[in-house]
Design a protein that fits this description.
The protein has 342 residues and is an alpha/beta fold. Strands 8-11-14-17-22-25-28-31-34-36 form a 10-stranded parallel β-sheet, with no helix packed on it. A 9-stranded parallel β-sheet has the order 9-12-15-18-23-26-29-32-35, with no helix packed on it. The longest helix has 16 residues, at 80-95. It is flat, with a radius of gyration of 27 Å.
């Protein structure tokens, strides 16, 4: 199957230089493309690859228009990367269309669940009592939607996603034990057992959310866990009970977010980030991969940080000293200047 360049521009816009009837058989990178492919370039540092590519057509920005036209057919647009993303969607819709209004014969859907007529429920999915699945939402295979959970419109849940598992909530049943060691006496607590806190909330997933394979979103203990509109979650993410994630935030793979955390809108959270519970993170925050977040972030910006594991007492002292390193360095420099040390 193929699509003509003219059909692409008709659907997505942009300025075409070249033959509108040219047939495109696939999408490829600049280096891998041949004469049946369309590719893109969004950074001028790839100009040499643009010149050398065998692609039938290349999507470029205005700054590379002249070079692209000299090479052959091109589509010029202000945001080539965004245009290419939309083209991948168009290609997928044309060549790999989902069956909407479809419930697979192996899916288990409770009689009280509300499934929109246009939703797609894949093989071996489970949708429990009173759950809701919105219009044009796709649950791929093995997705589990717990009771009372709500999934909005135009969402995509990849295989193995679990929505609405119990949050990790247990109350310690303790006893006081008297201690008497030499001149010291007092009491300390001993945990007898952990008492489960029933998780009485649910999960709300707003519209246009995508959730990667094997990601788990726990139901709230009392208040619902909420995933805002347009949020994109990668694979293997754990979101604890009562967490709220603002609209259009993206989270990369293997991140763990503890319960009752509030994350703002338009945030970018890298892979393997750990976020402690009961924290507030502002809008427009970027957190670098593998960072460990243990305190509130109140203003937009880019944040990074990882500190070696140690006994807590030693770790606390070292962490406090680490915060002073920049100041200490400047003081040492001033001291060296005063003593004429080079």
């Amino acid at each position: 199957m193929s699509i003509q360049l003219g059909q692409i521009v008709e659907k997505l816009g942009g300025k075409l230089h070249g033959d509108a009837a040219c047939e495109i058989k696939g999408l490829a990178s600049l280096l891998a493309a041949d004469q049946g492919h369309i590719s893109f370039v969004s950074n001028q540092k790839y100009e040499q690859q643009l010149i050398a590519t065998q692609a039938a057509c290349v999507i470029v920005g205005p700054k590379l228009e002249a070079q692209a036209k000299a090479r052959g057919a091109c589509i010029v647009t202000e945001q080539p990367y965004v245009y290419f993303a939309k083209l991948t969607q168009l290609w997928s819709q044309t060549h790999h269309a989902q069956k909407f209004g479809f419930v697979h014969s192996t899916a288990v859907v409770d009689a009280t669940a509300v499934i929109h007529p246009t939703a797609h429920i894949g093989a071996l999915c489970v949708v429990e009592a009173n759950a809701k699945v919105g219009a044009n939402t796709v649950l791929q295979s093995h997705v589990h939607v717990g009771h009372d959970c709500v999934i909005g419109d135009n969402c995509l849940l990849h295989p193995g996603v679990v929505i609405g598992a119990d949050g990790f909530g247990f109350a310690p049943d303790v006893e006081l034990i008297a201690i008497d060691v030499g001149k010291k006496s007092g009491q300390h607590t001993k945990i007898r057992e952990w008492i489960k806190i029933e998780q009485l909330g649910a999960v709300e997933i707003r519209n246009n959310v995508e959730i990667g394979a094997n990601t788990c979103i726990d139901r709230g203990a009392l208040d619902n866990t909420i995933i805002g509109e347009g949020v994109k979650l990668d694979n293997l993410i754990q979101i604890g009970h009562g967490t709220r994630i603002g609209q259009h935030t993206v989270v990369a793979a293997s991140t763990a977010i503890a319960g009752s955390t509030e994350i703002g809108a338009y945030c970018t959270i890298g892979g393997a980030v750990s976020i402690a519970g009961h924290l507030c993170i502002a809008d427009q925050v970027q957190i670098s991969g593998a960072s460990v977040v243990t305190h509130n972030i109140h203003k937009p910006g880019i944040y990074s940080g990882l500190y070696p594991l140690d006994e807590h007492k030693e770790w606390s002292k070292n962490a406090a000293a680490l915060k002073q390193l920049a100041t200490l360095r400047e003081r040492i420099r001033e001291l060296e200047k005063s003593l004429n040390i080079k």
